[in-house]
């Protein structure tokens, strides 16, 4: 069995309560950090751990902490990004509802490290029931002296605020999240200035994902070096993977980074293989925005090496033959899935969620959805395929925030790897629009 | 703008809750309370009318337009009256892979309405939403804070019948 850092105690009955969490060793890391370490030493452990941003970007968390400006007399903020909205991703939802004190303990340690006295957990508004779980846990921690004034007699004060969003994928982008937290529309900000210099209320701010912060208790208890020994190379530690689609056992799994894609997909410890009687067609490994891969590039790289669940191995081959680990949203498609329909579905998502600030994204996502809709519904022309590629190129890299890229990549990669299927939809509109029809080489599976 | 500003008001309990929310933020940053307070408003009235938006603007000491632009940006706020139960049905890829489109078709037939409509008896409003972060438990819909997961036609029938009682 693989080591578990985040989910070791997740199935202990009553783990959502302070008492049970405490009995499993909870809050000892807060005691250790606040009583025996300086904030700088805590930051140093985060750096040594090599833990990378688990929301999708994969930027080293300790390094991000190191960028935080510390001008005299100006408050600093830590904001936890719990706006989990990337299609295929539901790990933070699972973690927060099951073991809320883990995130709270991580928030206390991280806030202490950064010198923040008021920190926020921004949770997507649809998870109001999770917000209530977190608020209850915060009240318990406060009653036990782990939050509020003079924590454990150290003189350090911290208030934790849980903030609900209002329904907007874009608020998972950190500057849009900060705008939203200030009570505004979620329009991403131009950078620079970066949040580390001017973030929430124009003050220095760090924004970290739920899973990233939840690693901190273990890192403090065991040391950053011990964390860095798990995993392979620059992919250190464990990762929560949200597995969905046509597999035997959908759910959230904690893996040691470096397990092979084949083992994750097919072993009974994880996904348990493709559902019975079917076979693998395609995979989106890191949430809807990362490039989709065809069956022959999933368990092996183009060079024929085993593909591993690491940042590096999944991106092996670049976008030509690789993809990204992203948020760990692992969406599996068997032969009954229609790539054109799914691509249209994803492009509708990005069109719906574009904030409308940048023209390439606002207009381009709308056109991609429209063109994909007509191909899927039997009204496409051959020119439409190149048109989609052209639109995706005009969005990519031309917007304030990465939503534009996130919208472009699924379309570009679907055409790159499944062009035949798009062509078939255009040349065989009647067959392609029959109920349940799916392209199977030159034939339709109905 | 309504001529009688007292027409719309939070219940005393909700007003206390709103004060507690405003107190969470640094002084002068009370606008941060806007999204949570709009959720409280929706709890009370079921939807967010322009009168309610004006009222919230007054409570937070901000311009009404600052509330309008937020209420219309975020998808959770209902800008028109809704039925007793608002079914927010996930239409995004992973749920569709699990048969979400078929179950959705069944649900629409069962209710006799399309997305954006309310049943004649005022019991159900149907809305399509994007990914609810529950992809491993799809198909999924949400009614207020409750998630209904691993939906099938039979489960949908049961849920609708239970809520119709």
Quickly describe the structure.
Chain A: Its EC number is 7.1.1.-. Chain A has about 450 residues and is of the alpha/beta class.
Overview of this structure, please?
- The complex is a heterodimer of chains A (446) and B (165).
- Chain A is α/β, with parallel strands linked by helices.
- Chain A folds into three domains: 18-229, Rossmann fold (3-Layer(aba) Sandwich), CATH 3.40.50.11540; 241-334, Ubiquitin-like (UB roll) (Roll), CATH 3.10.20; 339-445, NADH-ubiquinone oxidoreductase 51kDa subunit, iron-sulphur binding domain (de novo design (two linked rop proteins), Up-down Bundle), CATH 1.20.1440.230.
- Chain A has helices at 18-23, 28-36, 39-49, 61-66, 91-98, 100-114, 128-143, 174-181, 210-214, 216-222, 224-229, 261-266, 311-314, 318-321, 339-353, 359-376, 383-395, 403-427, 429-432; strands at residues 77-82, 118-123, 159-164, 205-209, 231-232, 235-236, 238-245, 251-256, 280-284, 293-294, 329-334, 438-440, 443-445.
- In chain B, helix 2 packs across helix 3 and helix 6 (100-111) packs parallel to helix 7.
- By secondary structure, chain B is of the alpha+beta class.
- In chain B, strand 3 (141-143) and strand 4 (146-148) form a beta hairpin.
- Chain B folds into two domains: 5-73, Arc Repressor Mutant, subunit A, CATH 1.10.10; 85-164, Glutaredoxin (3-Layer(aba) Sandwich).
- The model of chain B is unreliable at 1-5 (pLDDT under 50).
- The interface between A and B is large, with 57 and 45 residues.
- Chain B: Belongs to the complex I 24 kDa subunit family.
- Chain B: It holds the Pfam family 2Fe-2S_thioredx.
- Chain B: This is NADH dehydrogenase subunit E.
- Chain B: Its cofactor is [2Fe-2S] cluster.
